[in-house]
Automatic annotation (TrEMBL):
The lineage of its organism: Bacteria, Pseudomonadati, Pseudomonadota, Gammaproteobacteria, Lysobacterales. GO terms for cellular component: plasma membrane. Heme c 3 binds at C355, C358, H359. InterPro entries: Cyt_c-like_dom (IPR009056), Cyt_c-like_dom_sf (IPR036909), Cytochrome_c-type_DH (IPR051459), Membr-bd_ADH_cyt_c (IPR014353). Residues 31-134, 171-286, 342-430 form the Cytochrome c domain. It comes from Frateuria aurantia (strain ATCC 33424 / DSM 6220 / KCTC 2777 / LMG 1558 / NBRC 3245 / NCIMB 13370) (Acetobacter aurantius). This is Cytochrome c, mono-and diheme variants family.
Length: 486
């Protein structure tokens, strides 16, 4: 434990020494460009257009969309590989309408349906920043997007845009209107709906269920409407603003997956007034009630009446190996002996080896909340086990305004059955006992979650389309023959 706290302090010191500018490295005294930099932060541009450890906005980040991998492009002002030759009008059209300067359509993995609401003044500032302060990178991204048929037909997005792309006002939002400012940050710049709102058959957000929660690449983006049970109605405005800034709220939730990226690349840089505006707006959003949810996700669990200290040498070895980013290995996980605990389940054994040293055998975590409690925790009490499983598989690696947080990933070190066993142990011991997961579900989540309905139905739709085309062709041939016979 001391070693890990030392690692934590060392990592914090290194980050502080490196500064807090993150992926956006430019600093400018030009007020317009500085405003544009803030807009780029609020819109979370770097999260997709910058590889971790790579050059700012040089592209190459792989976005695991339900229809295939989409690679973010180079948006530096390079004249050969980026947007250096784009006019402001072309830039605005790409951001708001999803149409590149050369006329090809973008996929809505680039959240242009949300960015459509960016004001003219903010768009001008963003363009100024991107073209004058970002360093040009002339190299093309290593990968290009090449979705399979028929998703690779980019021109089909024109019809999708006709159906779903709106044209909201581009006027400035009254900065003194807290709810209006919060709505703008949540809906336009923050594009929260792109993850937290369910999608329909054609992969557009279903706004009748606005912010009701949705599954994204294996993770579950929870209900963030004002519902006091299914949503965030039980959170205070301060708790919400603090969570957005740091990535954690004691006794409520911790950010992981895509939300951790949003905190690290975007939200931690926003002003306190903007974060509180977002929180105030979210608490005003009409409640999306789910009758299947009877308790808030953070409302489950309590400290066990009896605490068994199961810390042992194998547990410490497992933790040391994980902290060093080396595989724990099946051999180590299989080498445990529990002669004094003959009735302990496999999930409990795995928890003892890999989890208890940080989260404590009681599940209470540490007093400073660096290692969070496993009870009163949205990951262990959620409506699904997705986030619990995904956190174990992929770990947590984020930097909020208060410093870095790290949990090792166990995807290489535990098989699907082991992940299921420890997930079930954690849920039943500290969270929602109704949550159950099996190896098949873990395998599916490890692969990125279930395919969307559109992908499942596409073969049938293509077959139906082919039949319709053949019938129309046959009808046309018949009509032509009759005409000639006359």
């Amino acid at each position: 434990m001391r070693k890990l706290h030392a690692l934590k302090l060392a990592a914090t010191a290194l980050l502080l020494a490196a500064g807090t500018s993150g992926a956006i490295a430019a600093q400018t005294s030009d007020p317009l460009a500085a405003k544009g930099e803030y807009i780029a932060r609020a819109a979370d541009c770097a999260a997709c257009h910058t590889l971790k450890g790579g050059k700012p906005f040089a592209g190459g980040y792989a976005i695991a969309s339900p229809l295939g991998t989409i690679y973010a492009t180079n948006i530096t002002p390079s004249k050969t590989a980026g947007i250096g030759n784009w006019t402001e009008a072309q830039f605005a059209r790409a951001v708001r309408e999803g149409v590149s300067a050369d006329g090809h359509h973008l996929y809505p993995a680039m959240p242009y349906p949300d960015y459509a609401g960016i004001s003219d003044s903010d768009m001008h500032a963003l363009y100024t920043y991107m073209t004058t302060q970002v360093a040009p990178v002339d190299g093309q991204a290593a990968h290009v997007t090449a979705l399979g048929f028929p998703y690779g037909i980019r021109s089909s997005m024109a019809l999708w845009n006709l159906l779903y792309l709106k044209s909201p006002s581009h006027a400035d939002v009254d900065a003194g209107n807290t709810l209006a400012r919060g709505r703008y940050l949540v809906n336009a710049l923050g594009h929260c709906s792109s993850c937290h709102t369910p999608r329909n058959l054609l992969m557009a957000t279903d706004n009748s269920r606005y912010l009701a929660g949705a599954d994204v690449a294996g993770w579950h983006a929870p209900n963030i409407s004002s519902d006091p049970v299914a949503g965030i109605g039980g959170w205070s405005e301060g708790e919400l603003a603090g969570f957005l800034k740091t990535g954690h709220a004691a006794g409520k939730a911790q950010a992981a997956g895509g939300m951790a990226e949003a905190v690290e690349n975007s939200l931690r840089y926003l002003s306190d007034s903007d974060l509180h505006a977002m929180a105030a707006y979210l608490k005003s959003v009409p409640a999306q009630h789910d009758p299947a949810v009877t308790h808030p996700a953070y409302g489950y669990g309590q400290a066990p009446a009896r605490i068994y200290d199961l810390d042992n040498a194998p547990s410490r070895k497992s933790l040391d190996a994980a902290a060093a980013s080396t595989p724990i290995g099946e051999a180590l996980l299989a080498s445990r002996t529990y002669t004094d605990l003959p009735n302990v389940t496999e999930g409990a054994r795995l928890f003892t080896d890999a989890c208890a040293s940080c989260h404590q055998p009681s599940g209470a975590g540490t007093e400073d909340h660096y290692y969070p409690s496993l009870y009163h925790n949205s990951a262990t009490g959620g409506v699904t086990a997705n986030n619990l499983v995904m956190a174990i598989l992929h770990g947590v690696d984020r930097t909020g305004a208060d410093g870095p947080t790290y949990m090792p990933a166990f995807d290489r070190d535990m098989n699907d059955a082991q992940i299921a066993a420890v997930s079930n142990f954690v849920a039943s011991s500290y969270g929602n006992p109704a949550l159950k997961v099996d190896a098949a579900q873990v395998k599916m989540l490890r692969a990125g979650g279930p395919p969307p309905a559109l992908k499942l139905w596409m073969p049938r739709l293509l077959a139906l389309g082919a039949i319709v085309i053949l019938l129309l062709a046959g009808l046309l041939i018949t009509l032509l023959r009759r005409k000639r016979s006359r």
